[in-house]
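TEACHING EXERCISE
Course module: macromolecular assemblies
Task: Read the component lines below, then compare them to the predicted structure of the full complex.
Student: A.B.
Group: 4
Components provided:
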Amino acid sequence: MNFQQAAARYAANPSRETLAEVTGQLLQALTAREKIRLLSGRALGTTVMNLFLYRRKYNATPYAAGGCKRLGIPPLLFTDGPRGVVMGRSTCFPVSMLRGASFDDGLEARVGAAIAEEAIAGGANYFAGVCINLLRHPAWGRAQESYGEDSYLLGRMGAALTKAVQAHGMIACPKHFACNSIEDLRFIVDVQANARTLREVYLPHFKKCIDAGALSIMGAYNRLNGAYCCENYELLTRVLREEMGFGGAVISDFVLAIYDAARALPAGCDVEMPYTWRYLALPRLLRKGKITMEQIDTAAGRVLGMLLRSTPKIKPQKKDVIRSGEHVALAREAAQKGMVLLKNDGILPITEQSPCIAVLGRYADKKNWGDYGSSNVFSPYCVTPYQGIKAGFAQGKVVCYNGCEPEKALRIAQNSDYLVVCVGSDHRQEGEFMSTLGGDQRRKPKNVGGDRASLRLPPEDIALVRALCKTGKKVIVYIMGGSAYVMEDLLEAGPHAILMGFYAGLEGGNALADILSGRVNPGGRLPFTIARREEDYPPFLRVEDEAREIEYGYYHGYALLDKQGKRARFPFGFGLSYTEFAYEDLHAQAVDEGIYASLTVRNTGSCAGATVAQFYVGSAGAGDDRPVKQLRGFKRVQLGAGESAEVRELLPWEDLRFYDPETKQWGLDAAYVVYAGADAEEAMNRRQAVRAG
Ligand code: BGC
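Instructor-supplied answer key:
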């Protein structure tokens, strides 16, 4: 039997049994060498080509692994994300953190479909861009690649992306499994997390992607409870496969994730990426009896199963889908929907016919679409704030100063009424950290990304805003960055408006202008907590710390603030609009599948707009080892002025369970409290108790 015949048999009867049967037949037809080859990255040549022929563009063509010509088994053709497709000149979408802020999984599904089309057109069949590590601390350099601090939000968005990508026949790969959220020490750090914290906080979003059909998973670089993730039997076999029901193939993160093939393969890491380095030892280990043929068959069988379930569904794409008009428009729509208005003293939107606007600051006219790590997408252009505002206010007078010297800015802005100050971070202060390989990364060179050194905005940015605020003109701060900033000094400087723009993709400047002008009413909501003080976040581990081990406790983000009775500066789920909303009539009742909750949302203002109805659930009377509440449902709703809608969400029991490490069982509490409203703090104004079961 060859691959095509096996795929046809499976397509005719896509059951588990047929899959097992045809996979078994293919395994029989393969030699031991061919099976081992299915587990082996073979991208050495591609890397050389990418570096030299494609002028150093990372992943310009897919990284291949596995495959067998004799039996027609296709290789894995890997491309990265999640900001878009890393290959070629694809559409640079806004980063996942901005997409998380849209709280719109329907939108994420459309982004996923567009990404899949571009990836297929670029020759890939494997998309490793479902990045769902939980943002435990805002210093994490790769925060921008993920959707926020909340497991439920991560799960909903990751599942939407997974499904959409796989509907096109691509393999979707959620990553990095697990607890990968410290960048500078990513190759070394040993994360300690107990059984309950793992299962309730750090893994449920992976489970949601698995339930959505994810065919692959990438093991992380870091250690978890003492063992490297890609060599961690407890993680990859006991938890991922036996408990979470994952049936696909695990690949390693690149190069420095596997140290010992004799541990990795039996642990459940099926494919070494992107080169065969440690897995070169597999034939020898087999001969010496350190690994078994059965283990090789199991891993090869998983790779075959993944390919059989995806390859026949591939929808071929023409090259012109890459950065098509439709995809570019979608990137702009996503950017519009995710930007979060944090403050507005009545100056936005700018409605004058011909306003005088000065666009100032370090990022006023600079391409700034996120980090330069493996998720960089190489679109041929990026609309800067200045370009977008100039085009969006064509009848106004728009000037620009791309810098942060207050005197120059004041001079340039002297005839302007509105000052848009573009501040924040770029690929130098945060992002994937790629330049020191392994070892102790004390010699971290400057300007390479990695974890953010400070949670504050740079002092030069604050000084500029302060100087501009003194002019009495209308000051709007536009923040670029991948996660939360502690903003006390910015707020003290006194700008009239603050808009969190994240890294908004190739159309970011246009989306910014759409919001400033009121053509689009902002509806993004914070996917993380903006705390008042650095100490309000859990501890983080840095290169200069002696320790290489860190405890990931149960509490972070809004759950930690709730626990400590503290308030955020801007809570999780918060965002302003140009209109007002009222939230009324919360009803919650237990049904067979979970708690059925409804809430009426009314647009009480004078223009159309979107808000996100949020449902949180806490357990009632279960003692103090439970969080006060956790997000368990949300819906983004668009309403015209005066309109209202009833939002209904089923909050499944499965999401409300707690894990008992003693009995290793999941259980339900006797009673719950449902909170609903505009954000994690506002929702506390409405509550209803529900008895379980
Ligand atoms: C990153 C992964 C990425 C891989 C391939 C690694 O350094 O951690 O997220 O998919 O490189 O580019």
